[in-house]
Write a structure and sequence with these properties.
Number of helices: 13
Radius of gyration: 24 Å
Strand content: 15-25%
Number of domains: 2
CATH architecture of the largest domain: 3-Layer(aba) Sandwich
Structural class: alpha/beta
CATH superfamily of the largest domain: CoaB-like
Length: 426
Amino acid sequence: MRVVLGVSGGIAAYKACSLLRLFTEAGHDVTVVPTAAALQFVGAPTWAALSGKPVSTDVWTSVHEVPHVRIGQGADLVVVAPATADVLAKAAHGIADDLLTNTLLTARCPVVFAPAMHTEMWEHAATRANVATLRSRGAHVIDPAEGRLTGKDTGPGRLPEPDVLYAACLAIVDAPAAAAPADAAPTPSFEPGPAAYASTGSLEGRTVVVSAGGTREPLDPVRFLGNRSSGKQGYSIARVAAARGAAVTLVAANVSLPAPDGVEVVPVETTLQLEEAVRDAARDADVVVMAAAPADFRPATVSDSKIKKSSETPGLRLELVENPDIVKGLVADRRARSSARPVIVSFAAETGDADGTVLEHARAKFARKGSDLQVVNEVGTDKTFGRDDNTVHLMVRGSDEVVSVGPASKDAVAEAVLDAVLRLLD
């Protein structure tokens, strides 16, 4: 794959070196196009050494090769990381005053922006409008992470880690029929959203709610009961649903991944918070996908201060109470409305034991919950949790057939799950 890595002038430019290495070590051909300001943070010799190619910031170097047109035309992917507020503004308004901004105008491949800036700049109305404009034209703008910024500041605006950006770029390139940035400006009535995709399994006009991650139940201000869920599968489902045209709400329990393009993210921590957020969003939804891993139990009491060790009473006894079954609650809500919507997808993370196999336990769970589609995966320390691939088994209400998918990427699993959902909607 021919990749153009644009680097603009922010302190996070040093992270782009690691992103460059991830692309080159995977065998991709990378051309680095920094801005003049970016070279104040990381010099041209570094980019040339890591990419194996000469580096230029202006349109006058090797002018006989017409680089301001050729580089963009020949790319399979353009990613700008970090993307400053200045570069976002220039890209949104078609300003072409250096090699990078010219390349952005000539590219007809997927274009990814990874913004990095101070929180106030990211949240400014001008930046938000520029991001909306870019997304409306088919560009992918990955929301920045939240964390420590330059100096003592903390907040949204941090460049996501290189491995996260690399995975996001590959998912965008692998997505079906990714649209290239369009020449035409959006109509005034356009609502900003994800890039358009041509898909036979369109979710245009549908509202989808997805939960992801693992809940945490506090013991005291320091400790909690939790699980190993990374949220990757739920995020893949949200991303693919948005790519197919759905309006997506993603309820995320303790997930540190960047938000998918055009997806509304609702952060939660505990199972009770997850239940409230999902049931609230589900009222007007066509589909609810419960990919999160909520804790079955929570401590009966939560200590106001850190629980200390005691030599007089060694050990610790915990009283746990059962958390509500969120899927059962969704089914009950739907029944109370005498409605066929939303289609409800449950997940069953199971381990086999002396009492039954993974699928036997999953069938029993499916019968209890009353969902329309169940996604079953076998879990363990080295299975599913945190991995980039997955193997699942799909069970549909009213059918004895089990459809197995994988081993496959989590985006491919998401496609299969949403294909099954579409058949239920139809």
